[in-house]
């Protein structure tokens, strides 16, 4: 264990007692059509899907129709998931950075028009490293892409947040530590970091990673490890990760990105569990 990690863990156990405990706004990764149910349960926002809401490959007219339909929803849309489709390769011999930058221009402009300030860069199909391709070369490609994406996001007042994904979903950028290093190298205020507690638990990554790169964390996702369930389903204790977020002074939102068996029945349990454990 590195000296830096040990210091972070010591800081986590000592300093967190004296830090203020801000309560995040809590949202859900889902369609805006579920806003009525979630608003009644006390949620603050919706995290929509780039592909189905911003429809980057479709006309402005089609996007405007969706935007018009969503304007009277009971909750605002503050963020978007599913940034890139799998055919737009971020890394590997078939990487298409020029096409991605053109696509990103549409995504960020429409996200801003929809009132959202966060776009999540998970996109496992886009960023998975092809078999036989150098991981180090892929990392260089990805950093160069991030350097190019930051200024485009800035023009539209959007922050693109890099989401580490567990190894069952993607073979590249699987931890907050790995993602934090990349964000640090990209070095742009509009290319930042997302903490997904489900993916961290799947990878056995502890909350101390949040302490090391907390200065970059602008958004968070949560679900239980078992079945990627809504918090409160299996009674998993997530509060150590919340404790780390509080210690780094996290002020962003917290979205449930998980599997719902009955949203109307589970909505109140999910938000109550997050608030209680926070």
Written account of the structure:
By secondary structure, the protein is α/β, with parallel strands linked by helices. It has helices spanning 3-15, 35-41, 50-54, 60-70, 97-113, 124-127, 135-155, 176-186, 197-202, 208-213, 239-247, 263-277; strands spanning 26-29, 45-49, 77-81, 118-121, 159-162, 191-196, 217-222, 254-256. It has an 8-stranded parallel barrel, surrounded by 4 helices. The protein starts with a helix and ends with a helix.
Features:
13% strand, 278 residues, 45% helix, globular, eight-stranded parallel beta barrel
Helix percent band? 40-55%
Can you write the helix and strand succession as a string? HEHEHHEHEHHEHEHHEHEH
Radius of gyration in whole Å, from Cα?
18 Å
Number of strands: 8
Strand content: 5-15%
- What's the average pLDDT? 94
Largest sheet, order of strands side by side? 1-2-3-4-5-6-7-8
Contiguous uncertain segments of 5+ residues: 9-19
Compact overview of the structure:
With 278 residues, the chain is α/β, with parallel strands linked by helices. It is 45% helix and 13% strand.
């Amino acid at each position: 264990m590195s000296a830096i990690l040990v210091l972070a863990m010591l800081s986590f156990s000592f300093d967190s007692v004296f830090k203020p405990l801000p309560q995040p706004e809590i949202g859900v990764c889902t369609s805006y059509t579920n806003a009525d149910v979630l608003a009644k349960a006390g949620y603050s926002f919706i995290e929509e899907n780039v592909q189905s809401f911003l429809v980057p490959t479709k006309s402005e007219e089609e996007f405007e129709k969706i935007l018009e339909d969503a304007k009277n929803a009971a909750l605002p849309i503050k963020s978007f998931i599913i940034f890139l489709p799998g055919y737009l390769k971020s890394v590997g011999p078939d990487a298409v950075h020029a096409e991605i930058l053109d696509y990103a221009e549409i995504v960020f402009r429409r996200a801003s028009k929809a009132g959202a300030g966060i776009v999540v860069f998970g996109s496992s199909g886009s960023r998975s490293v092809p078999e036989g391709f150098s991981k180090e070369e892929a990392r260089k490609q990805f950093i160069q892409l991030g350097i190019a994406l930051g200024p485009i996001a800035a023009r539209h007042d959007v922050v693109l947040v890099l989401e580490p994904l567990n190894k069952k979903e993607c073979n590249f950028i699987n931890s907050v530590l790995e993602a934090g290093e990349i964000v640090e190298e990209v070095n742009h205020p509009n290319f930042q970091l997302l903490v997904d507690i489900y993916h961290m638990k799947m990878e056995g990554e502890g909350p101390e990673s949040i302490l090391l790169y907390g200065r970059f964390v602008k958004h968070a996702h949560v679900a239980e490890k078992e079945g990627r369930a809504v918090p409160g389903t299996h009674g998993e204790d997530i509060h150590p990760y919340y404790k780390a977020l509080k210690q780094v002074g996290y002020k962003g939102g917290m979205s449930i990105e998980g599997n719902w068996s009955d949203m109307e029945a589970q909505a109140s349990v999910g938000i109550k569990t997050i608030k209680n454990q926070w």
